[in-house]
Specification:
Double-stranded beta-helix; 9 helices; four-stranded antiparallel sheet; binds fe (ii) ion; 18 strands; alpha+beta; globular
Length: about 350
């Protein structure tokens, strides 16, 4: 290995260590969290009125049991300075094996074990000062989204496999590196649009073939492409196509957005989607080169793979890291996803409990 390559590898390892942190629950803390999650699920989970304050109280109670080191990890994420936080040492909610064919979305959504996982995720979000929320124009306005192959496109066809596959987390298609939509702004509301989710949290009800979730922290990529390219990415010269998860008739393509913003509270905030973004045609070569450099940096990045189970959860900082996945190989895989709004984010609130934002 040449010195230059060795240096690059060491730098990448250093970044990964800083950007991807693990929080381990001890047994007592884990049992406490489990009980809070069950209590929250029994009133209907994150979508129920009152869940928000119950999750907050649970998080406050839990924090009393954490060590100084544990609190330091939570604070780093809460302040927006970490790309990914993995929670380990969590308890299972069920030992029931998945059926060969997944039940329909509604019956899955109403399962008690799903509500427990979602409730636990809502509490975990609160530990890092994020509030669970939904957008009015996405996921039918619901806080909890099940990530599974309901609409085809996986390695193995499903019953009634549709001809046209939806490019969203409800299909089985591979999804290239992206942050979650909407893409109008990242931290502060702009022109009637709330910012992108600050975080997304994922956990798994079933992941029988142990298929990983992949994350790509952006800081090493931005470091690599350099200052001029980063500055060019802060210009409003990019466009994106509408997401397939949006409510029918709502949400739209966007033009003249930036990819990077400088932000006083977190340093930088990003929005990007490798299969929805492009650079405007009539822009300078500086901007075009910057976009190419970013895409190349993302392409060449070595994603961190993490296999979710019921006993773990992963919070991804959606303004600092991209995530992606391979084609779904086992159609029994079911993840539970919730968006989180950080303490420093300023959205347009439609209703407070459950928290619904204008997208
Ligand atoms: Fe995603």
């Amino acid at each position: 290995m040449t010195d230059a390559i060795k240096h690059d590898v060491e730098t990448a390892e250093f970044f990964t260590e800083q950007e991807i942190r693990t929080f381990s629950f001890d047994n007592r803390q884990s049992i406490m969290l489990h009980r809070f999650a069950e209590a929250l699920a029994s009133i209907g989970g994150p979508q129920a009125p009152g869940a928000k304050s119950k999750a907050s109280l649970a998080a406050t109670e839990l924090k009393f049991s954490f060590s100084k080191d544990q609190c330091e990890i939570l604070d780093a994420y809460s302040d927006g300075l970490v790309s990914v936080l993995i929670f380990e040492g969590l308890q299972k909610f069920t030992d029931v094996s998945p059926p060969n064919e997944l039940p329909n979305l509604t019956s899955l959504e109403n399962r008690y074990d799903i509500l427990c996982l979602a409730a636990r995720s809502q509490i975990l979000l609160k530990l890092v000062d994020n509030s669970a929320f939904a957008y009015d124009m996405d996921n039918e306005g619901k806080l909890v989204r099940l990530v599974a192959n309901f609409k085809g496109g996986g390695l193995i066809t499903i019953n009634a496999e549709p001809e046209i596959k939806e490019l969203s987390s409800h299909s089985g298609l591979a999804l290239g590196p992206h942050t979650e939509a909407p893409y109008w702004c990242a931290v502060n509301a702009k022109d009637g649009h709330s910012p992108s989710p600050s975080s997304l949290i994922l956990s798994a009800l079933w992941n029988p073939s142990l298929e990983p979730t992949r994350v790509i922290p952006l800081p090493p990529i931005l470091e690599k492409i350099g200052v001029t390219n980063c500055l060019a990415l802060t210009t409003g010269n990019f466009q994106f196509t509408r997401s397939d998860s949006f409510v029918s008739g709502k949400g739209e393509d966007g033009r003249n957005v930036s990819i990077l913003d400088f932000d006083d509270k977190v340093g930088f905030a990003a929005r990007f989607n490798s299969y929805r973004f492009s650079v405007n045609e009539n822009v300078s070569n500086f901007v075009k080169q910057a976009y190419t450099a970013l895409c190349q940096g993302v392409d060449e990045a070595n994603p961190t793979n993490y296999t979710l189970t019921q006993e773990s959860a992963m919070v991804i900082n959606n303004t600092r890291a991209l995530h992606c996945r391979d084609v779904i190989k086992d159609n029994r895989r079911v993840l539970v996803r919730i968006f989180g709004l950080a303490k420093f984010s300023s959205p347009i609130v439609i209703s407070d409990d459950p928290l619904l934002l204008q997208g």
